[in-house]
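User: I'm putting together notes for a lab meeting next week and I want to include a structural view of one of the chains we've been expressing. I don't have a solved structure, so I'd like a prediction I can at least talk through. The sequence is below, exactly as it appears in our construct file.
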Amino acid sequence: MTHEPDGKTGNFFRKGPTQASRMVPLDPLIPGCGWRIAEPYHLPIEAGIRAERERLRGKSWMVVLFERTLDYDGIYEEVRLDEGFEALPHALQRAEALLAEHASAAKALHPEWPLGVERVRWPKLTHVAGQPVHRLEDFFIHDGVGWGNHHVQVSVMALPDEPVDRELIDAIGANTELQAHFRKVGRG
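Assistant: Thanks for the context. Below is the predicted structure for the 188-residue chain, given as structure tokens.
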């Protein structure tokens, strides 16, 4: 690593491996996604995408969870590709159970928080792979003063021929959280 003057203020900056990091496009894996991830951080994301494709291949429907928590520390958001199913009724049954499970856990953490109504349009698309997206009723609790809330949304989406494609990514919309999901899966 070298230290060189910046040429303007006389301050020195470090010239090291972080500045040499290359952005790796994931378009070869998911055409049109536009994702560019710094090397070598793209590796677990790519591995996660491949693992999810393999896990979901041959399935027609997938349950997707979007969870957002706001508290005094900030906002935490998570996307999870839950399970894949061949039949829509089984996917809807799983989606209802997943929503109930997460709602129960949130209520247990904050039993004093009232139920609220918050309509967030998620997923962003109404159709995936030519089929309508099935949105379950949202679960939303809040502290009553605006400093804390917990929001759970669950949807059932049709899976395209290639289980993770640009249309599915566009429907889910939360790129950072979706990449985090793939990273977690890719690290196993």
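A couple of points you could mention at the meeting. The helical segments are 42-56, 88-109, 166-172, 175-187. The mean pLDDT is 87.

User: Perfect, that's what I needed.
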